[in-house]
Amino acid sequence: MSPSVVGRPIARTDGVAKVTGAARYAADADVTGVVHAVLVTSDVARGRITAIDTAVASSGAGVLAVLTHDTLPALTLPAVTSFYLKRFVPVQDDRIRHAGQPVAIAVADTLARAQDAAARVVVRYESAPPQVVLADALGEAYVPPPGSDGPNDYTRGDVAAGMAAADVTVEATYTTPLQHHNPLEPSATVASWDGDALTVHESAQGISITQNVLAQAFGLTPGQVRVITPYVGGGFGAKGPAWPHTLLAAAAARHVGRPVKLVLSRAQTYTSHGHRAETHQVMRVGATREGRLTAIDHVVTQQVSRTEELLFNSSEPTRMLYDCANVRSTQRAVRLDLPTGSFVRSPEAATGHVLESTLDELAVTLGLDPVELRLRNWSAINQETGAPHGSNHLRECYTRGAQQFGWSRRDPRPGSMRDRDGIIGWGMATAAHTAGGRPGSGATVTVGRDGTARIECGTQEIGTGTYTVMQQVGAQTLGLAVHQVTFLLGDTRYPAAFASAASATVPSAGAAVVRAATAARDLVVAAALADAASPLHGVAADRIGAEDGFLFVTGQPWRRVAYRDVMARHGAPISATSTPVPTPLGYSTGAVFAEVHVDPAIGRVRVRRIVGVFDPGRILNRQTARSQAIGGAVWAVGFTLTEHTLVDPHLGRVVTPNLSGYLIPTNLDIPDIDVDFIDRPDPDSPALGARGFGETPMTGTTAAIANALHHATGHRFRDLPITQDKILAALS
Amino acid sequence: MQNFAYRAPASTTDALRLGTGTGARYIAGGTDLLNLMKDGVQRHDLIIDLNRLPLHDITPTTTGVRLGALARMADVAAHPQVRRRLPLLAETLLAGASPQVRNAATIGGNLLQRTRCWYFRDASMPCNKREPGSGCAAQHGQNRWHAIIGGSAHCIAVHPSDLAVALTALDATVHTLGSGGARTIGIRDFYRLPGDTPQVETALRSGELITAVDVPSTGLTGRYLKVRDRATFEFAVVSVAALIRTGGGGVVREARLAFGGIAPVPWRSAEAERQLIGRRLDDAAIEAAGRALTLPAAPREHNAFKVPLVRRALATALGGLR
Predict the structure, then answer these.
(1) What domains, with CATH codes, occur in chain B?
(2) Does the first or last residue of chain A, that is N or C, have fewer Cβ atoms within 10 Å of its Cβ?
(3) Which chain A residues are Cβ-neighbours of B233 within 8 angstroms?
(4) What's phi and psi for B116, nearest 5 deg?
């Protein structure tokens, strides 16, 4: 038997194209006659437009149009279920809901001329002082209706009784800041019309979402809209929903009768496609002296906009993770004059951070090792649904991670571990994120007369390795070698797939590929069995195996025939298409251990090493899975130590809308990251035993770092990011 | 970005002739100016590329090293004479920017880079430095990175250059050339506090060029300590350039202390230096120097942490020189 195709650490098949520049991203689309659109955005955060003067802008050389709410044709507001999250389309009326809202679109024959025209649009506003500080408006918090991530007002058991029964309780207030996605590639749209048919090259994490939103906005059928996205230069959630710039680019293209390209500026990405909303969180936990949780009461308050009230910092960890009979999770919203929030990589990270930090506080209070505390509260089941997980090897993650990290050498006393330059801190936390539980996808597998397969699926490649992994899944299921399979994605002409979001690509698109490939293989097997000249003729279909390009009789591998020969004799391609089946809700977990170093003289923090052991079911590709874990750790370092979007409290405007002001970690900020996997198939997985995994590794890592800082300093840092000034204040 | 004319003169005479026109601006490495122009923060009709001028050399002098205004940061930091005679300068240059930026950015351009104040760098925000009279949004806004010393009601932006802090400690001299002829300006007279004219940042006159910077070697022991919010490629929250000469018994004979990140200009503190002279470099002396440094501090809502931070940075830098 040759080794499994799935699991191999195959280098990503699109890697060479990406590093050589051959990969064509949305803005690279070669569309004849394309012209350029640039958005003019609001400088004020609240108010209305009293006048827009476009005369000078319109008179510039090469300027084709300067569109405002007075001149842009009306667009239909897409339904919220379409994942157009904003409850208004800008450039349709004079109202200003947030700073950065588009108020005009300049279109010209070159980018420079469009930018120049945009700069010459003069907008006058009647503005009111915006309210943008969450802390100032906590009194206005309310519980909004539930969104797609579960209830906002959840109770099981009796929390008061659970607290009363506790030997110890811990209560703490944490805050997490406004943060942004910052993908390398800013969102881009190239829209062209052919009559009522619209083609859009879009940097999208969900091409079917973009297709449906455009269809609704322009009163078209989805079939009249084609969205093409062969590559996405990072999304992290920014490109999951559809946002106004896509509609405005298409509207501008229709107006000028030419294909239009619109690329958001870096600054515009801070107001155009959502953010991780600022949170204020109060966590209370009660436990017995032995460390068994008796109650959890978690109140999360976060910013929403004036026009929407969807919450994305959702509290699944509180509801699902630990064995606790009495749990209350309250999610509250505060309306502020800021843009609409959305999901940012690992949306459960902000609430998970607080749960895992508070458990560390509880461990300190109890004098119990943090690993032991978690082992004692481990749950075999999803605590919210009561359903057993398909598989759950979290306990093994703790023990293996502790061993790999050397946790037993930890002196639990804060500040007790030092080196020549400063203080060492060791912390740990549980990583946990839902994966899947979302709509399904479809795929078409076509086996050609040469015995190779082509798989089409309307999913996306957002940098996670979808091209590579789905090729492996297809090859494994068909019994072909990896190089005999081609995987195509990013085109709405392929069977529709769910968005590349919510750690759902493997369970959703992967399952679609498995189903279609299984059906196609069965058809090929049937053709072989029916062929009197085949060595397989007359064998029962369930005795046929497929591997490495051959069909063979199980137990008699010498009785075999090549796919190529079967298909040549068959004489026509064989094709099968899977239809969407909703994906089960997976829960991928792990244990993360972090070492920090603190220079007590100036409060400087460096993360020295991170060890993560994860249980995402079966590993489909060890290399791309490891890259996901590394990426999550990098995000966690930024989340915990450096990243926050600052808003001026009086102007209501982002003052850090660029990578100079918004600090993401550099290579020098990132330590060695040691990643390991349990790698055991989840029997409930529809995708060869694999669960979704993309969002798990960031969770846990944030609290592991913060808990390590407590271990180093004896101070609990409850307000993120934990910048040097906060460390210094604690040490003074 | 608006359209502009571009010239690349081959002589300083031609450069100065072009540079006297209104709307003209010199460009060298372009690492700052291009961003400012793209963001609409600065608009210029004529860009005068200086790179053809013979101002690239790094030359040993009897007293130190002369840096041509067009010498690249990376080249200066790697120059054997600089590394041997001015290690503080090399250390400081390597603490700034990124390798890519250091390969392009010049010494003259570094000294003239504009503040990182975000209200300055967003053309649609109020900013007296960019648009006199429009107000200073930083006074009551997001001012974590702003000045605690030397600011005014009109501006509290800090100068972002690491190099300028080291040169201030090293008592460098800036050589300029203008239509009125050549001048030499001590680095401490080169930068101007904002007062009520924050748009005036240096002693340079309109159209005047920096041609070179003379950096004397001091024989003092020095260290540059840069505190920032991530490990690299980030401007200083606070920084310290410290130079010390001690005599018999470890008594400080000479001290030069310059600071970045705390003031609108590279901040030299004679008061702090005085606390060290004639004393051993012990904790009490260092503490006294820190207190003297921050005596005039007037922090705003979000930057009070800079007071203890700069004192601790000073203590750490001096501690390393003991």
Answers:
(1) 221-319 (3.30.390.50)
(2) N
(3) 666
(4) -90, 5
